[in-house]
């Protein structure tokens, strides 16, 4: 039974961390995290050595859901171009949600500014994974320079997310997909 209680406590802490770090930033205090999770600080420190470790674990836990939102239902039937555009269609949909604040992984990288921080390492790996997906699809789609196109797509992905999350840009008019379509055309992606 103790294992179930620990898993439940751990899950509550990671859920609270994901919510608060995304909404309020990584500077949120331990007291607020524990209060939101309904967990004592003692219990938190029994599960995690530090807030930094909890932040990294929270980000790792979100990876499958984060990656799944950008994968088409039937990826084998989609062309590389369609797979790339699908990612940006999902960003446009997500940005319409009033609670959207941009990419949680980019937010962590920007806030922490420390490449050695455990959460920065998780976030960087996720962002590099997305860049690699773009590069692979660009190569399969016949892009003249898949690496350059992947970097350009990341700029659009991150820029669109940040601007929409800060409420200085709206993506409901297809701005991201229109921009990506132009890039794909220019790069020769089919």
Please give a quick description of this structure.
With 190 residues, the chain is mainly alpha-helical. It is built from nine helices and no strands.
Model description:
The chain has 190 residues and is mainly alpha-helical. It has 2 domains: 2-51, Arc Repressor Mutant, subunit A; 69-187, Tetracycline Repressor, domain 2, CATH 1.10.357. Helices cover 72% and strands 0% of the residues. It contains 9 helices and no strands. The chain has helices at 2-24, 30-37, 41-47, 51-68, 80-95, 104-112, 118-140, 146-165, 175-187. 30% of the residues are buried. The mean pLDDT is 94. It holds the Pfam family TetR_N. This is AcrR family transcriptional regulator. Residues 7-66 form the HTH tetR-type domain. One of its GO terms (molecular function) is DNA binding. Residues 29-48 bind DNA.
Could you name the key traits of this structure?
transcription, 72% helix, Tetracycline Repressor, domain 2, mainly alpha, Tet_transcr_reg_TetR-rel_C_sf, Arc Repressor Mutant, subunit A, 190 residues
Could you outline the blueprint of secondary structure elements for this entry?
Elements: H1 2-24, H2 30-37, H3 41-47, H4 51-68, H5 80-95, H6 104-112, H7 118-140, H8 146-165, H9 175-187
Helix pairs in contact: 1-2, 1-4, 4-7, 5-7, 5-9, 6-7, 7-8, 8-9
Number of helices: 9
- Measure the end-to-end span: 55 Å
Spell the H/E element sequence: HHHHHHHHH
Query: Given this structure, which CATH class of the largest domain is correct?
Result: Mainly Alpha
Share of residues in helices? over 70%
Low-confidence regions: none
Global outline: elongated
Q: Which range does the strand content fall in? A: under 5%
GO molecular function: DNA binding
Keywords: DNA-binding, Transcription, Transcription regulation
Organism: Streptomyces griseochromogenes
InterPro entries: Homeodomain-like_sf (IPR009057), HTH_TetR (IPR001647), Tet_transcr_reg_TetR-rel_C_sf (IPR036271)
